[in-house]
Amino acid sequence: MYSSDDYNEGGYESFGDYEPHTGDPQYDLEYDRSYYKMPEMVKKFLVYFRNMINEGVTYEILNLYENTFPKLTEQYFENTPWPEENEVAPVVDNDHVFMILYKELYYRDIYARVPGGPKPEQRFTSFYNYCDLFNYILSAETPVPLELPDQWLWELIDEFVYQFQSFAQYRSRTSKLSPAEIEALNTENKAWNVLCILNVLHSLVDKSNIKRQLEVYTAGGDPDSVAGEFGRHTLYKMLGYFSLVGLLRLHSLLGDYYQAIKVLENIELHKKSTYSHVPACQVSTSYYVGFAYMMMRRYADAIRTLSTALLYVQRTKQLFSARSYQNDQINKQTEQMYNLLAICLVLHPQCVDESIQQVLREKNYHEKMFKMQYGDLGEFESCFTFACPKFLAPCPPPVEPGSNYGRDAVKHQTQVFMDEVRQQKMLPTIRSYLKLYTTLPLAKLAAFMMAARGSDRDRDVAREHASLAIHLLCFKHKMKNVVWTKGPSGLDGKFQSGSELDFYIDNDMIHIADTKVAHRYGDFFIRKLLKFEELNRKLHHIKI
User: What is the rounded CA–CA span in Å between residue 357 and residue 543?
Assistant: First the structure.
């Protein structure tokens, strides 16, 4: 086995027992051209990387994957892609599995860095490379001898779904495509098909038996007892878990929020587990779950999910701040989650952690929330379009010149959200008046509402009372939603009122009462002081 010192110091000459020349002059000449035009450090890196993968040294693979590969990219390939397959294959002795993994990194790098995105043929070849990888993993009769770090496995699944999303968006912008590109899309109509993506993710879930493992793990049992031959293998187990998160993302992109949360049954979203140790995976899961809850009008659950994720990011940011790929992705989703949280707090006010409140104040979210509270529909739509996923059409039409259906899915979901907002437009104003009184005549509140809207005071009073009655019923209805309390599924829950006040109407008089009693902080501090004194006594006895 080779150590990282050998690689870092470049203190070795060759790896593996293979001869670079075959005896075929044409092949050997082509080999020499491809081999020697590549920087020496890159050749050593590729060979060492191949050897570490073959030997299953996961800690060293992670170091090469997270640190060395980006450094070499910056040093040698800042303005160009990495070498192509035909240049790398002879260097690594045509290692089939390594070449599949190398091409996955190669195409991912093109997606991330090449201006204008990959070419059409690169999109197709990347898809077929994923097919080769997943066929190798799924078609085996026994677990394949491949060990990869969890970070790579997560980013592999995440990138697979991302490239599908990118292809769907590219396909929809036919006005920007050339006739040759349109013909290629119609010819390769099976590439990046949504059914294929779903099939791959569900196959990985089934092969790993991850759902049954999670069920047993949540119940406090040993997941290995039900994992089976493949599920006990780390590669299959983690690919299965990350595929569940991939399905969450995919269903959210397609607008199926119920199914998005349902695929995560037996995953305790608000608790840390042995499966949820990749920061980017945790943040991505919370973002899509929080968004799905919001679109299902489960604002309390959305606020809890988003707040927990944002606190996690605050506490652990130092762990991934040095990793540019993760840092950029997490920063973007963090900003999106703050916007979603601002929307939810306007529609369903409640207390959140003080550190999150401070960020909302410092980053000017309070100004956005102030505008939304006073019925600025444009601010609602602006926050939503920034924070929402880039939705996809589940059944895209044939590719035809001049058509442009790419924004239809986004417009549809935005319209659904804005319809809900319009129904609740007057509720913050009603709440602000009700909080000032214990009893309030209906006519007086109607006058306040007319003044708030700038309406003519000579308007038909009966119509105004009828309109106010509708808004009060809406207030009662919208403040009640399903809230998760316990259970293996995030869809479980009970109807609860999230309002800090309640009211009833009797003889045109509104009677108002607070439903939430203020916290008794004195009792809390007394309990903490007693615990501190007890701990101090125990430490004193230990010293003696």
Answer: 42
Query: Where is 189: in which H helix or E strand?
Result: none
Report the candidate in 411, 363, 366 with the shortest Cα–Cα distance to residue 384: 411
Q: What is the pLDDT of residues 230-285, one digit of tens each?
A: 999 999 999 999 999 999 999 999 999 999 999 998 887 767 766 678 888 999 99
Q: Which of 493, 490, 487 has the alpha carbon at shortest distance from 262? A: 490
Amino acid at 275: Y
Which of 321, 328, 317, 414 lies closest to 359 in space, CA to CA?
A: 317
Q: State how far the Cα of 87 lies from the Cα of 92, in Å rounded to an integer.
A: 10
Res 518: pLDDT: 52
pLDDT digits (tens, 9 = 90+) for 177-198: 888 888 888 877 788 999 999 9
Mean pLDDT of the chain: 83
Read off the tokens for 466.
């009828």
Residue 465 is which amino acid? H
Residues 6+ apart with CB under 8 A from 153: 235, 238, 239, 242
Task: State the number of CA atoms in the 13 A half-sphere of 298 facing the CB.
Answer: 24
| Mean pLDDT value across residues 56-76 | 93
> Per-residue pLDDT for 362 more than 60?
yes
Please give the C-alpha separations between residue 25 and each of 28, 36, 91, 352, in angstroms, as whole numbers.
5, 16, 17, 72
Nearest to 106 by CA among 82, 133, 89: 82
| Residue 240: Cβ within 10 Å count | 26
H or E, element range at 245: helix 234-253
Residue 37 has phi, psi (to 5 degrees) of -85, -10
Are the CB atoms for 181 and 120 separated by under 8 Å? Answer: yes
Among candidate residues 240, 123, 249, 102, the one with its CA nearest the CA of residue 181: 123
In b/e form, how buried is each residue of 143-181, taking b as 16+ CB within 10 angstroms? beebbbbbbbbbbbbbbbbbbbbbbbbbbbebeebeeeb
Q: Which amino acid belongs to residue 515?
A: T
Rounded distance between C-alpha atoms, residue 386 and residue 417, angstroms: 13
DSSP result, 47-84: HHHHHHHHHT-HHHHHHIIIIIHHHHHHHH-SSSPPPP
pTM of the predicted model, to two decimals?
0.83
Asked if residues 51 and 2 have their Cβ atoms less than 8 Å apart, the reply is: yes
Name residues whose C-beta falls within 8 Å of residue 192's C-beta, 6 or more positions apart in sequence: 123, 127, 163, 164, 167, 168, 171
- Return the pLDDT at 18: 35
Q: Where are the domains of the chain?
A: 118-422, 426-521
Task: Name 116's Cβ contacts closer than 8 Å, sequence gap at least 6.
Answer: none
